[in-house]
Amino acid sequence: RSEDLRELGLNGVHTITDADAFALANRPALEGLSLRGCKSVGAGTVASLVLNCKRLQKLDLAFCGLISNEDVVAMGEGLPCLSHLDISDCYDVCDEALVRFASSTNAHLLSLNLDYGIRFTDVTLEALGHHCINLKALSLVSCCSISDGQLGTFTESPCGAGLSLLDISYCKQLSDSALRCIAANCTSLQTLKMNACKSIEFR
């Protein structure tokens, strides 16, 4: 039965609108939804998820450029089971929304992908380190506002100690200082990606 649907993937279906997503997401049992690259979905989709999908655990909205700060806050406050979120290249999302999201999801959040985020800074890392103590995977590809100092502080938090995957590829401003902090503090790390980090010289 459609109401028993647990996982739904509609990646890259550009014709999907908020109205379509509302009908598709009206599935109380839904635990995983991927709308990656569905460029026409935005606030209406998030509103329907918050209203109807309280069991949602995994949500992929990467490259959905209409996702706003208000949407990120609503997901944090309205999806109590959310543990995996991908909002790569949701370019309007900034520190204020991510700080509120982190404080709402707290220990539930296990995986967060913020690749290509251009409007958030060290403030977001500080909030994640403080609130999301069970975070296991963090992706920050091409997030050029993250500094050595705050990444170091993040790795020293309980969140950093439990991290198993960290991707800082194309964060060209990060240096050997960041790498030393990762090596010293991320004791559970299994996967580290730092492709094209040209300021890291392994000295």
Q: Structural class, judged by helices and strands? A: alpha/beta
Alpha-carbon distance between the two ends: 59 Å
What is the radius of gyration computed over CA atoms, rounded to a whole number of angstroms?
A: 17 Å
Helix content: 25-40%
Mean pLDDT: 92
Number of strands: 8
Strand share of the residues?
5-15%
Sheet with the most strands?
Answer: 8 strands, parallel
List unreliable stretches of 5+ residues. Answer: none
Q: Please write the string of helix (H) and strand (E) elements.
A: EHEHEHEHEHEHHEHE
| Count, helices | 8
- Can you tell me the overall shape? elongated
Strand order of the largest sheet: 1-2-3-4-5-6-7-8
Keywords for this structure?
203 residues, alpha/beta, 8 strands, 35% helix
Report on this model:
- There is one protein chain.
- This protein has 203 residues and is α/β, with parallel strands linked by helices.
- The protein is built from eight helices and eight strands.
- It has helices at 18-24, 43-52, 69-78, 95-105, 122-131, 148-155, 158-162, 176-185; strands at 7-9, 32-34, 58-60, 84-86, 111-113, 137-139, 165-167, 191-193.
- Strands 1-2-3-4-5-6-7-8 form an eight-stranded parallel beta sheet, with no helix packed on it.
- Helix 1 links the parallel strand 1 (7-9) and strand 2.
- Helix 4 (95-105) runs parallel beside helix 5 (122-131) and helix 5 (122-131) packs parallel to helix 6 (148-155).
- It is elongated, with a radius of gyration of 17 Å.
